[in-house]
Amino acid sequence: MILSDIIELSRLYGQNPDFVLAGGGNTSVKSNGALYVKASGHRLADIDEAGFVALDLKKLTAITEKAYPSDEASAEAAVLADMMAARIDGETGRPSVEALLHALFPQQFVVHLHPAMLNGLTCGKDGEGAVLCFLGFEAVWLDAVKPGYTLAMAAKKALDHAADDLGHFPSLLFLQNHGVFFAAETKEEMTALIDGTIEAIQPGISKVPSVQDDTADYANTPAVQAALQTLSKSGRYVLFFSNSSLRAQSVGWSTVTSCALTPDHVVYLGESFCCVSHAEDLSEALPHFQTAVGYSPKIVVLKGVGAFAIAAAESDAQTYRMLFTDFIKINDYAKNFSGARLMPDELT
């Protein structure tokens, strides 16, 4: 069954935090006129056949060639309706919002990942130049754009233009402040493509993150204990964590600091996190943060010491910790490409 290969690829990268975290990323495979794409609500790490939804490729292609209303909201609603109608009879899952983008690639397998190292490049101020330098014209760069139909049409234009220039369809699509699409004909070619892409940019990586956990060295300090006492008053679960890169970066952060490097960070953490110099600053900083952004912080940083993930349950706090550590890693990797660039305001 063709799904066995895409399931294997999905789990291979979905279980590796260097490539994707939580519910991020998506995968697909084409067979007999159908596109089997990850359904919303499923994780690559443990996906099985039930995690894919089959869509008619001809109907998906027709969407990219159809004229829709000029109003963006109306267009997105109409596209969603057409995409749901493209499901093969009997399918009930909701296809990934990026299903249209998967259909653009003629290659059989498409894997979309968010590797921290490569996102250091997609979030870097000189990311586009680095892609050209290390990967040449085989890799297509796309500036930040709204997800869904808008993204799919922008990608179609860029990919078709590259295909005309190259004489064949490209296998790499870098999305600014988002991630990378890899396209290949076989499972083996896919793993080679992903490994080769990472290897190709290695010469440009001199600054690497230092995120080895050393929480135990700081957990019992008076500052951390005081902060835990204040943060725990909300009745929510509070998880403290620390590492060298986090402490070094925190020196330059303010009470309200944006973590909007990629959609994953915004979805899981919100657009911003809270940072204070001393535990006693929390009594004023937390209300200020709430007023400024309209929600309570999921991450609170104690400068030079560590961070606290705040959630309703431990599992959620662990997820916030993973995503914030990813934010830290991307920040450091982006230093190799002239520093990090946040998502445009209109996208956050």
Note down, in words, how this protein is organized.
- With 348 residues, the protein is of the alpha+beta class.
- It has 13 helices and twelve strands.
- It has helices at 3-14, 57-65, 72-85, 99-104, 116-122, 127-135, 149-166, 187-201, 222-231, 244-250, 263-269, 282-293, 314-334; strands at residues 26-31, 34-38, 52-56, 109-113, 139-142, 172-175, 179-184, 237-241, 256-258, 272-276, 299-302, 306-311.
- The strands form two sheets. A seven-stranded mixed β-sheet has the order 3-2-1-4-7-6-5, sandwiched between helices. Strands 8-12-11-10-9 form a five-stranded mixed β-sheet.
- Strand 6 (172-175) and strand 7 form a beta hairpin.
- Helix 5 (116-122) crosses helix 13.
- The two termini are 40 Å apart.
- 43% of the residues are buried.
- The mean pLDDT is 96.
What is the tally of beta strands?
12
Shape: globular
Task: Give the count of helical stretches.
Answer: 13
The overall average pLDDT, rounded, is: 96
Largest sheet: 7 strands, mixed
Structural class: alpha+beta
Strand content: 15-25%
Low-confidence stretches: none
- How much helical structure, as a percent, in the residues? 40-55%
Spatial strand arrangement across the major sheet: 3-2-1-4-7-6-5
| Cα gyration radius (Å) | 21 Å
What is the CA–CA distance across the termini?
40 Å
Taken in chain order, the helices and strands follow as HEEEHHHEHHEHEEHHEHEHEHEEH
